Amino acid sequence: MRKIVVRFGLFAGGAVSLLMLVTMGIGKLSGSVPSGGIGMAIGYATMVLSFVFVYFGVRSYRDTVKGGRVQFWPAFGVGLLISLIAMACYSATWQVVYKTMLPDYAEKYAAEAVKQAEAKGASPAEVEKTRQEMAKFVIQYKNPFYNFAITLLEPSPIALLVSLISAGVLSRRRREPLSTLGTAVS
Predict the structure, then answer these.
(1) Cα–Cα distance between 183 and 39 in angstroms, integer?
(2) Residue 138: which residues within 8 A CB-CB, separation 6 or more?
(3) Cβ atoms of residues 83 and 159 within 8 Å
(4) FRET pair for 77, CA 20 to 30 Å: which of 101, 107, 136, 148?
């Protein structure tokens, strides 16, 4: 089981990391790294594509370790373990991207949050509260442990959903082929 979890975790982690690097690299070369809703959509789409390896890993576990049948909870556990490795790869890659390509990310994120609060018509007191919270965020985000932990949470909804779906689909009992059900009625 360990081999399957590590192999497919690294496949998923490599895919999500590579797609992040390509997306950010293209954005950096074009002078506009995707941000806001478009950036989130691209980011989550690449995560969904990458986390397909969770399904293949759970299927491999079912077929090679469990002899073709697996119950929901063991399948879900394998999916989560594969996802954890992929999420760690994602977060580690973000640390490199953040330091080399986007060292001012936290400041830009904070400025955008304040700008959105103002655009929504927040009171001056609410805008100031947002400004203070974002100033605190910028300081915290510079801590690599905090940064890693926050980034680790980002793909977790996708990882959980794909693990649940994979476990559900792969733990269902398969129907027997018609040829094994018996003789045909004349």
Answers:
(1) 57
(2) 106, 107, 110
(3) yes
(4) 148
> How much is the pLDDT for 31?
65
The structure tokens listed for 173 are: 């009992």
Q: Cβ contacts of residue 7 below 8 Å, gap of 6+?
A: 57
Number of residues written out for the chain:
186
Dihedral over alpha carbons 155, 18, 24, 22 (to 10 degrees): -140
Provide φ and ψ at 99, rounded to 5°: -70, -35
When comparing pLDDT for 78 and 27, which is higher? 78
Tokens of 46: 């690449």
What is the separation of C-alpha 74 from the centre of its chain, rounded to a whole number of angstroms? 21
Cα–chain-centroid distance for residue 79?
Answer: 13
What average pLDDT is seen over the chain?
89
How far apart CA 73 and CA 104 sit, in angstroms, is 42
Q: What is the pLDDT of residues 139-164, one digit of tens each?
A: 999 999 999 999 999 999 999 999 99
Q: Which residue has the tokens 């689909």?
A: 169
Helix pair 2-30, 72-100: axis angle to 10 deg: 30
How many C-beta atoms surround the C-beta of residue 138 within 10 A?
17
